[in-house]
Amino acid sequence: MTLVLLHSPLVGPLTWRAVAALLPDAVAPDLSGAVTHASVASLVAAQLDGDDPVVLAGHSGAGPLLPRIARAVRQPVDALIYVDSVLPHPGESWIENAPAGLVDRLRGIARDGVLPPWNEWFDPAAVASLLPDDEMRGRFVAELPRLPFSYFEEKASADVWNGPASYLLLSEGYRDDAAAARKAGLPVAEHVDHHLSMLTDPAAVAAALRRLCGGSAP
Questions:
Q1: Which pLDDT does position 50 carry in this prediction?
Q2: pLDDT at 34
Q3: Is the pLDDT of residue 54 over 80?
Q4: pLDDT at site 98
Q5: CB 53 within 8 A of CB 77
Q6: pLDDT tier at 124 (50, 70, 90 boundaries)?
Q7: What is the pLDDT of residues 139-166, one digit of tens each?
Q8: pLDDT for the residue 51
Q9: Residue 165 has what DSSP assignment?
Q10: Nearest to 213 by CA among 179, 158, 168, 171
Q11: 16 HSE (CA, 13 A, CB side)
């Protein structure tokens, strides 16, 4: 079984690299360049080799795309893990479920239909507080893409996942989403630190993923 660690399209592959290095048979595809939901799914499918079953773990913005990705990959999908993310809203767009204030802010900072990198959506101190190491923060920021606003207007696919799934909570900001997952009957693990904990405490995040995978490989 291969654990596929998927970063949000808003960030880069550095996000999962340290965790992947700690988990045998884990891979962290590079989703750089994806500007539509379909292109995210296609990039994941193109970077998976072999016929072994996979578990798809999606952090943040990758979480709601997991059912679509599960349909796109050719390998059998054993389970999904939502990592500090909202749950899927089939047939609805991100802006239909996001706070109105954030949607208005993003509309205001978009230029020619393109948003600035994710770190520029907030006060500069926000990312620095999550990633205090200057070198790591610099590498992280260097990978951040500029997505079109249309990405957030795109309707999610109607794909519904009916197989095993679980939730890993990393920050208080996603506490309500973890509660919704628990209410839906999903196992929930917690390592509450911050949204980018896989960069600053990869061993703890890797251990939490192992627990959700039932302690089996990877």
A1: 83
A2: 92
A3: yes
A4: 83
A5: yes
A6: confident
A7: 999 999 999 999 999 998 888 899 999 9
A8: 86
A9: E
A10: 168
A11: 26
* Beta-sheet strands, E only, within 28-176: 54-59, 77-83, 165-169
Locate tokens 């979480």: which residue?
63
Amino acid (one-letter) located at 201: D
**Packing angle between helix 134-142 and helix 14-22, nearest 10 degrees?**
120
CA distances from 25 to 3, 48, 82 (A): 6, 12, 19
Residue 218 pLDDT level (bands cut at 50, 70, 90): very low
Neighbour-count burial for 114-148, b at 16+ CB within 10 Å, e otherwise: ebebbbeeeeeeebeebbeeeeebeebbeebbebe
Helices 14-22 and 202-212 pack at an angle, to 10 degrees, of: 70
In angstroms, what CA-CA distances link 184 with 58, 159, 166?
A: 18, 17, 10
- Full set of structural domains in the chain with CATH: 2-212 (3.40.50.1820)
Pairing of strands 2-6, 26-27: parallel
> Would you state the structure tokens that stand for residue 111, as one six-digit string?
């230029």
Per-chain mean pLDDT for the chain: 93
Output the pLDDT for position 216: 36
Which residues is 27 bridged to in the sheet? Answer: 4
Round to whole Å and give the CA distance between 43 and 212. 25
Phi and psi based region of residue 157 (left: phi greater than 0; alpha: psi -120 to 50; beta: remaining): beta
